[in-house]
Structure to design on (299 residues):
């Protein structure tokens, strides 16, 4: 390859400029070129400005540019050259603002690091101080020590208090006796029984339950009951579970029926009542009069 050809390749005009020159020599406008190639005017302008990225993929560059080259009489090989041309990288201006931003980012990172360190260290520090103060023995101040010494001195100087005994009783009795009447000798105080003291929390509670004067039913097993008063109104009817107890006032019950009567203990006016005379097939039926008399009830 001769030097003239190399120089022609290196210093030849751009493709877009050659397209515009060929269009002008042919006497065509950009609109006329777009009509003949059936392309938008913007695509024709992009090709004359060497803006191949605006045409899209290389296949479109070859198609659009090849048609334009054939229209103005230029070699079609230029289309392949333009399709292989890569767009120049965009230049980024470097200025002092990048250094300022770098310093700002670094300061922000350092600040976040300090905040995170404080959030982790401060609670641990206060927790350690709390447990140290908790384990440290209390120290008496000078004022507290002086108050304790003064209280001990007052307690030591106070006169002893005589315990209350029979002497106080004798003085009270002597004051009630007349001046000319001799006092009757008082009997010696009775000796207290030698019993061990009973703790208040362990002392037995006296029974306050009054003796039963009415009808009491104690169920050792499940039983069916039907209780009716003197007016014929039903007081209770249903199945009663084992361990339950029913109490009725004197004169409240007039007629009663007990299923599974062998599992029921009955007492009337505090005395056990025998249900054998009233029982039929383990069902007891009896009446109670107003004066507490019982009698078998009709089925």
């Amino acid at each position: 390859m001769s030097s003239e050809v190399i120089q022609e390749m290196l210093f030849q005009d751009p493709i877009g400029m050659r397209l515009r020159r060929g269009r002008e020599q042919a006497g065509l406008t950009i609109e006329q070129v777009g009509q003949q190639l059936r392309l938008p005017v913007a695509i024709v302008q992009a090709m004359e400005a060497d803006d191949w990225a605006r045409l899209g993929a290389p296949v479109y560059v070859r198609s659009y540019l090849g048609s334009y080259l054939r229209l103005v009489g230029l070699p079609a090989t230029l289309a392949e050259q333009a399709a292989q041309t890569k767009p120049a990288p965009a230049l980024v201006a470097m200025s002092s603002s990048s250094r300022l931003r770098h310093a700002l980012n670094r300061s922000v990172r350092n600040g976040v690091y300090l905040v995170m360190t404080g959030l982790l260290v401060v609670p641990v520090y206060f927790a350690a101080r709390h447990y140290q103060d908790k384990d440290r023995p209390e120290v008496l101040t000078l004022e507290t020590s002086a108050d304790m010494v003064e209280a001990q001195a007052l307690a030591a100087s106070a006169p002893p208090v005589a315990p209350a005994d029979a002497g106080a009783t004798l003085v009270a009795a002597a004051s009630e006796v007349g001046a000319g009447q001799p006092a009757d000798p008082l009997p010696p105080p009775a000796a207290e029984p030698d019993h061990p003291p009973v703790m208040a929390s362990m002392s037995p509670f006296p029974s306050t339950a009054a003796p039963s004067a009415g009808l009491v039913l104690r169920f050792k097993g499940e039983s069916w009951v039907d209780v009716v008063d003197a007016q014929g109104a039903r007081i209770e009817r249903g199945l009663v579970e084992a361990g339950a107890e029913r109490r009725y006032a004197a004169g409240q019950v007039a007629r009663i029926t007990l299923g599974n009567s062998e599992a029921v203990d009955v007492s009337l006016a505090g005395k056990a009542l025998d249900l054998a005379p009233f029982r039929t097939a383990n069902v007891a039926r009896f009446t109670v009069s107003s004066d507490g008399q019982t009698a078998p009830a009709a089925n």
Observations:
- Residues 1-8, 139-143, 161-183, 198-212 have pLDDT under 50 and may be disordered.
- The beta strands are 215-219, 223-228, 234-240, 245-248, 255-259, 264-268, 271-273, 279-280, 283-288, 294-296.
